[in-house]
Amino acid sequence: MAKPLGSLEESSTAWWNRPRRPFLRVAELVTTFQLVGDALSCLGAYLAARLLWPLLISASWLRPLHESIPEGNWRINALVTLCVMLPVFHAIGLYEEHHSILNIREYRDVLKGWFLTLLLSLLAVSTIERSFQSRGIFLTVWVLLLAFLLMERFIVYRIGLRLRWLGWRDRQVVIYGAGDSGRALASRLRASPKAGLDVVGFVDDDPALAGRTVEEVEVLGAGVELGRILRESGASEILIAMPRATRTQLLRIVELCRRHGAPYRIVPSLFDLAILQVESSEIGGIPLIGIHTPRISPWQSAVKRGFDLVVASLILMAMLLPMAVVALAIRLLDGRPILFKQYRVGLGGRLFQMHKFRTMVPGTAKYACSPGESADPRITRLGRWLRRTSLDELPQLWDVLRGDMSLVGPRPEMPFIVEKYDAIQRLRLTVKPGMTGLWQISPDRAEAIHLHIDYDIYYIRNLSLLMDIAILAKTFASVIRGRGAR
């Protein structure tokens, strides 16, 4: 069955040039680590709660919760929870590898599995003798279990990334189509070890491309030579990257893949990826496909706004003194003005005034293209440091509080750029612009924002509070390392 290729991230261009190692099924190893880690997290949560409980109830405000339970109850409840949790996690798909940006899908599924396990375990222990637990103990165990599971899954996720960065691959693949989409796919796979895919070559029916090297990958031949190419390259999967192919061409390629017994996945066009969210249904045995444009619900908007107000207020209070120091430094070293104000395009195409600490020399054209590198002569000496540390962005917290921006979202563009937007790029205007976003923490952050619309579309389609938290955490880590997040 053909499936669209999943999203990729966690980039490191260095991994591609590392020596290729013998193939190791990293996905199977990661699944084993997850299974063992989940079991240890469950047992560890009960053991930690057993050790912590006497300390917790020593606090005066928790003494009313003091209850002693037999030692055997701890073991019985831990065993019940473990026997419930592993099948629930398997049913949800937590032991299958999924590729999602920042691993959001796995963390979301862990939360879902944890909640279902809690409910089923509560039902189970209520029917078993010698399984009594007080409410305080129950709460302690399940809070610890959630913390342990999230920590364990993050560690296993990083182990998988590290193994692939060191050169281990799951399987070799060829890309059918050496055009723009195929080259973009090869480039993205080069930049991301997470997928564990080793692109060994292109297949393309254009005879002029045969034997040429594209994106450091050789064009191995045409589709009629697919059998030979698969045998000689050792590839076990085909990624079809021909979004402009006609239906007849695509069916012919699919038939070639089936004839040679090669699994395949189809890379959709950016239009399909951005605009179309497909949902299947059935009426009287007739399959129907529904298509709709991604939209943000009023509930999502309300939750996101509340999160923005709380977090932006806390950050602003914590950063008042550093902001005052930065403002004074700009005034003493570079003179006035301290703030840089510029109209940007926000939600629904509405113009708003964005604020930043000034980092460029006075007299610089306000709506010229942004500097592409720190050596740009327009940037002041202090400005280079501010831009590298992202401190110049802090005044935008005021824009967040005013409601013009969000903490996380597509970066706001200047009006003259938005005027040239096509239909897909205008989807960026369906949510509030953000101080940071997926593009800022991606390997493509050095290039123009509008050239990488796929990051913003992915964010809009998968918008959630969990994703916002993950992007903010990743942004903070980038800033701490002095890389900025843009």
Quick summary:
Helix content is 47%, strand content 13%.
What is the topological layout?
Layout (H helix, E strand, L loop, with lengths): L25 H31 L14 H22 L11 H22 L9 H31 L5 E6 L3 H12 L5 E7 L9 E2 L2 E5 L4 H8 L3 E4 L6 H13 L4 E3 L3 H6 L1 E7 L2 E7 L5 H21 L1 H15 L4 E7 L5 E7 L23 H9 L6 H7 L3 E3 L6 H4 L15 E3 L16 H9 L3 H16 L6
Parallel strand pairs: 1-2, 1-5, 2-4, 5-6, 11-12
Antiparallel strand pairs: 3-4, 7-8, 9-10
Helix pairs in contact: 1-2, 1-4, 2-3, 3-4, 9-12
Describe the structure.
There is one protein chain. The chain has 486 residues and is an alpha/beta fold. It has three domains: 140 residues, no CATH class; 99 residues, 3-Layer(aba) Sandwich (Rossmann fold), CATH 3.40.50; 183 residues, no CATH class. It is 47% helix and 13% strand. It is built from 15 helices and twelve strands. A six-stranded mixed β-sheet has the order 3-4-2-1-5-6, sandwiched between helices. Strands 7-8 form a two-stranded antiparallel ribbon. β7 and β8 form a beta hairpin. The protein is globular and about 75 Å long.
